[in-house]
Amino acid sequence: MSPAAQRVASRRIRLQGGEPQLSSTQPARILVVDDEENLRNILVFQLRGEGHEVRGLARGDEVLPTALSWKPELVLLDLMMPGMDGFAVSRALRANAATATLPIIVVTARGDAGTKLQALVAGAHDFLVKPYAWEELLLRIQSTMELSQRHAGQRSFTGLPGSAATESEIVRLMNSEEDFAFLSLDIDHFKRFNENFGYERGDEVLEMLARVVNDVLDERETKTRFAGHLGGDDFVVLVDTPPAKAIADALIARFDTESRGFFPPRDLERGYFELLNRGGRREMVPLLALTVAVVENVRGRELHVRRLADLAAELRRYGKSRPGSIVVTERRR
């Protein structure tokens, strides 16, 4: 193994049980897509220095043909590009059977929460805002590759439909006679949980949440009934507007009960778990919680996907500023 490849194999340190543990991966074949030539060339150069095989593209409409012929294992994708933007690229990759499970990390200067949610709905696995720390990008690449390898390339291993099916269902409902509510679910402190307890344990949490969603929907009267997993800890539920708030309340109550089973008694008593951060200092991290943002009457207000994502992201941001699990609606004030 070359020195650069050895750096990749030993780059990431995962903290579990307070003890540093090395986590290794093999160099990957990475496609970098960014219309800013200097940024693209620098990123290609740096990733090659880390032992990866890398190609760079300047246009979104070149991505699918290149992915089909060169067969990358990961795409680093900018959003704002001429001809075909990153959202459209993600959808094109998801729509092709040969690239439907190809991991995508969006790397963009647009850091607002609405853009992130829209990118996840379009099919991205992860989202990183420019400027970023180099070590952070390497960690995101490694964690995305590990997730893809653990689940044989499937974005959603929870049994729920993924981003493409979620977007298709939203479009279908918008073109129907049915009004509906959009519930955006996000687990608070999930990344820190993964760092401390391990990614396999984190996968079990996601599978638990998918089961909770299905159970709650089975117990409620709603004509519109859809649940999707966008990737990571981002889930979407589509239901009728009248029972939406009650469904959201049931989701957080059930999640709070089920999630406590993932912590030892000592953490439950204290209300937090301890994490040794990258600086070697111990942090007190709150237990897992669930934020549910509820956007009602989506079709009646003709909310397109971008506006819907912006509203849900604003509500989620408000919810995450509060401790514990919470349901946030537009009538919160």
What does this structure look like?
The chain is 43% helix and 23% strand. A five-stranded parallel beta sheet has the order 4-3-5-6-7, with helices on both faces. Strands 9-10-8-13-14 form a five-stranded mixed beta sheet, sandwiched between helices. Mean pLDDT is 85; it is low at 1-25. It has helices spanning 3-9, 37-49, 63-70, 86-95, 113-122, 134-150, 163-174, 190-197, 199-219, 244-259, 265-270, 305-320; strands spanning 12-16, 19-23, 29-33, 53-57, 74-77, 104-108, 126-129, 181-188, 225-231, 234-239, 272-276, 282-286, 289-295, 326-329. Helix 9 (199-219) packs antiparallel against helix 10 (244-259). It starts with a helix and ends with a strand. The protein is of the alpha/beta class and 333 residues long. It has two domains: 3-150, 3-Layer(aba) Sandwich (Rossmann fold), CATH 3.40.50; 163-329, 2-Layer Sandwich (Alpha-Beta Plaits). The longest helix has 21 residues, at 199-219. Strand 3 (29-33), helix 2 and strand 4 form a beta-alpha-beta unit.
